[in-house]
């Protein structure tokens, strides 16, 4: 497991997590054990599935969560905490995560309302984790899903992630490189991702290299002299087709050319024709610049002779669906030996109570048919359970899978999801049912907290 986790984890949270933590401590509830589940309330248009990602960083966070003395001193100076007893800050100085985590493995296809992660821990530990877990899980899931949508329509052509410079910060770029690889990308332009994560790195050159020389042909010659047969030339600084001709006239040992602008369909056809006529049918064409899954799908449909796509902005920002409605809700609490199921009944934001499991059914050939969201205590013969134990008593149960293995799981999951549920647009809704036991528990909790509906005529039922 390679750390991509920043420092100052205790403070990397929303203030209200800490005000609640102080409140739990001061009211004596810090011994209560709470269960929270992280899920996505609804799928954004036009997503029809999600590809779970970010668990490794969630585990890193939980295992490293702590408060340094200077962080505690900072909190003690905040006006919000002036009325909090000093013993709470002594408690924070010793705080470590001691709970249990169940999670859907990274690279698993999931749907709305299905838990990606379940945390059971003393309530302060579980509560403090909300902000970070939501951020790291939903962002990587967003990007992994976007990458999967691109790779599925690429027709076997490779996708390379080029987006760090357009990400919402350098750290987001690193996480995006990881999530993109999970979603099926061949590699990344991010060198740190290659160093830390072992993701293959790809890169060519910028237009500034060409402009630094008086003549384009000289720029090509100098670059090819350094990098030999691995050279990929950026040919569109002035004129793409003429740029290819300049490289060919010099007999340079380049591996391929990159197109970064213009009508990719027409220009790639012209470039391919010139390359083939010169006996360079082996030279690859890489296209980059304002690409997304819809553009790639259309280029593939029209048989554009493009071998690789470099995608940046649309991939790392998931421009058409940049955020998920991630939620982290308490579903159960144990206090004084009594376990109580919990739920939220706000309009359009109902959450289901109880510790849950996702049960997935498949055909004999492995193709997924439907899911049942039920209570963890239930069993459904013939179904696979998605959430698995990851941490117990604060300790990792077993090593997490490698990134290559996660990518392979994602490919397998996507292959088992029938095509009508994977369409880019107007996809069918994958069937997810709620078990009768789960629906009964919701109604039991509802009856405890909400008044009974009035009968006809405004009278309450007797």
Mind explaining what this structure looks like?
With 462 residues, this protein is of the alpha/beta class. The chain has two domains: 15-142 and 323-448, nicotinate phosphoribosyltransferase (Alpha-Beta Barrel), CATH 3.20.140; 146-316, TIM Barrel, CATH 3.20.20.70. It contains 16 helices and 19 strands. The protein has helices at 15-26, 55-64, 69-76, 86-94, 123-128, 130-153, 170-182, 191-197, 207-211, 216-227, 240-249, 264-277, 293-301, 313-316, 403-416, 436-449; strands spanning 33-40, 50-51, 100-103, 109-110, 117-122, 158-161, 187-188, 231-234, 254-259, 284-288, 308-311, 326-335, 338-341, 356-362, 368-375, 384-385, 388-392, 395-396, 432-434. The strands form four sheets. Strands 13-12-1-5-3-17-18 form a seven-stranded antiparallel beta sheet. It has a six-stranded parallel beta sheet with strand order 7-6-11-10-9-8. Helix 3 runs antiparallel to helix 4 and helix 6 (130-153) packs across helix 7 (170-182). The relative contact order is 0.15.
Over all CA atoms, what is the radius of gyration? Answer: 26 Å
* Overall body shape: globular
β-sheet strand percentage: 15-25%
Number of separate helices: 16
How far is the N terminus from the C terminus? 61 Å
Number of strands: 19
Into how many domains do the coordinates divide? 2
Q: What does the largest sheet look like?
A: 7 strands, antiparallel
| CATH architecture classification of the largest domain | Alpha-Beta Barrel
User: Mean of residue pLDDT?
Assistant: 95
Low-confidence stretches: none
The secondary structure category is alpha/beta
Within the largest sheet, what's the order of strands?
Answer: 13-12-1-5-3-17-18
Query: What's the name of the CATH homologous superfamily of the largest domain?
Result: nicotinate phosphoribosyltransferase
What portion of residues is helical? 25-40%
Briefly note the CATH topology name of the largest domain. nicotinate phosphoribosyltransferase
> What's the CATH class of the largest domain, please?
Alpha Beta
């Amino acid at each position: 497991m390679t750390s991509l986790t920043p420092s100052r984890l205790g403070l990397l949270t929303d203030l209200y997590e800490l005000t609640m933590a102080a409140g739990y401590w001061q009211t004596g509830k810090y011994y209560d054990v709470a269960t929270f589940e992280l899920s996505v309330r609804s799928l954004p248009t036009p997503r029809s599935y999600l590809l779970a990602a970010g668990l490794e960083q969630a585990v890193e966070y939980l295992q490293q969560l702590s408060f340094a003395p200077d962080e505690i001193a900072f909190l003690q100076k905040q006006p919000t905490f002036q009325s909090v007893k000093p013993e709470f800050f002594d408690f924070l100085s010793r705080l470590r995560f001691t709970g249990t985590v169940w999670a859907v493995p990274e690279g698993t296809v999931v749907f709305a309302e299905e838990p990606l992660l379940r945390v059971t821990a003393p309530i302060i530990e579980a509560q403090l984790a909300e902000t970070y877990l939501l951020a790291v899980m939903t962002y990587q899931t967003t990007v992994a899903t976007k990458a999967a949508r691109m790779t599925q329509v690429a027709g076997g052509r490779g996708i390379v992630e080029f987006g760090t410079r357009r990400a919402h910060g350098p750290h987001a770029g690193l996480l995006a490189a990881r999530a993109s690889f999970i979603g099926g990308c061949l590699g990344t332009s991010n060198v740190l991702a290659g160093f830390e994560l072992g993701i293959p790195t790809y890169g060519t050159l910028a237009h500034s290299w060409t402009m630094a020389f008086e003549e384009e042909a000289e720029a090509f010659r100098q670059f090819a002299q350094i990098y030999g047969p691995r050279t990929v030339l950026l040919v569109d600084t002035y004129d793409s087709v003429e740029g290819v001709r300049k490289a060919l006239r010099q007999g340079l040992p380049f591996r391929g050319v990159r197109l970064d602008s213009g009508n990719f369909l027409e220009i790639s056809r012209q470039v391919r024709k010139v390359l083939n006529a010169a006996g360079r049918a082996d030279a690859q064409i890489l296209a980059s610049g304002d690409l997304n899954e819809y553009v790639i799908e259309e280029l593939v449909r029209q048989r554009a002779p493009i071998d690789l796509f470099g995608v940046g902005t649309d991939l790392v920002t998931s421009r058409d669906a940049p955020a998920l409605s991630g939620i982290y809700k308490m579903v159960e609490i144990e206090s004084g030996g009594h376990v109580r199921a919990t739920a939220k009944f706000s309009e359009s934001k109902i959450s289901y109570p109880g510790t849950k499991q996702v049960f997935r059914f498949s055909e004999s050939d492995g193709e997924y048919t439907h899911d049942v969201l039920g209570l963890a205590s239930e069993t459904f013969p013939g179904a696979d359970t998605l959430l698995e134990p990851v941490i117990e008593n604060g300790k990792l149960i077993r090593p997490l899978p490698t990134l290559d293995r996660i990518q392979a799981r994602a490919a397998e999951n996507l292959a088992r999801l029938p095509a009508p549920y994977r369409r880019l647009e107007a996809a069918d809704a994958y069937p997810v049912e709620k078990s009768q036991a789960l629906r009964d528990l919701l109604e039991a909790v509802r009856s405890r907290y909400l008044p009974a509906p009035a009968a006809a005529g405004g009278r309450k039922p007797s």
